Amino acid sequence: MKITGGVVTYNNKKTIDRCISSVLKMNIDKDYDFRLYVYDNGSTDGTPELIESKYPEVKLIRDNANKGFGAGHNAIIKRVKSDYHFVINPDIYLDENTVEELTKVLEKDESIGLITPRIMNNDGTEQFLPKYCPTVRYVFVSKIPGFKYLRRRYTRQEENLNEPTEIEFCTGCFFGARTSYLKRLKGFSNRYFMYCEDSDLSRRVRAQGKKIIFYPDVTAYHNWQRDNTGNLRGIYRFVKSLLVYFKKWGFQF
Questions:
Q1: Digit-coded pLDDT (tens) for 209-219
Q2: At a CB cut-off of 8 Å and minimum separation 6, what does 137 contact?
Q3: Could you give the dihedral angle defined by the CA atoms of residues 131, 93, 25 and 180, in that order, rounded to the nearest 10 degrees?
Q4: 60 with 47: CB under 8 angstroms?
Q5: What is the spatial distance between Cα 114 and Cα 127, in angstroms, rounded to a whole number?
Q6: 125-159, pLDDT tens digit by residue?
Q7: Does the model's pTM come out above 0.85?
Q8: 113: helix, coil or strand?
Q9: Cα–Cα distances in angstroms (integers) from residue 153 to residues 97, 131, 142, in the given order
């Protein structure tokens, strides 16, 4: 049984070392053959040089330009020849056999399209990523003082999801799937450079009648520092992607 993992980087030298180290240290059962791929989107901070020197067992694919999150993962998905594949952010790290456990769940149920674990912050608090699909109310109105309850509803943080649960949205920071299924989907839509590509993928998976499973029995840690409202470029990219998403799937309040 072959398992692959894919990481897309762009100037992630500060986090990629811990990510790769933790993934490669997993004590995956001898019945599974695991290989990690890294696609570098033209980093200038020494990220690919670090990987080449420290992790020769990693398959590094270097590009000379930043073509985006989805494009990088799609390039990996096209190359891999495995039974199961995991999409992994460069700021993810693992401290248990999360990949193997999720693979076992996928093996037992062919109706599962995507599976994601509980995602934690570095301090052990939960990130509440099994959200509902984005709507105008959840994404914009929830940021207005007095409407913060919509954010809590959107992220389902008051639902106490402590058992495997079918969900609407699968975060792009860490998930697994059958490789053959990801290839049939052709990975992420090329309409998105960054942001909302995971929302779009989730909608396509569910539209095909496949399930998205949140599996909280295992975890992954996400050193999340991205703020899509922290600068004008981030705001522009986020709003642009959201408009593409709404145009495709319909505006919902």
A1: 999 999 999 99
A2: 150, 253
A3: 40
A4: no
A5: 19
A6: 999 999 999 998 998 898 888 999 999 999 999 99
A7: yes
A8: strand
A9: 31, 8, 9
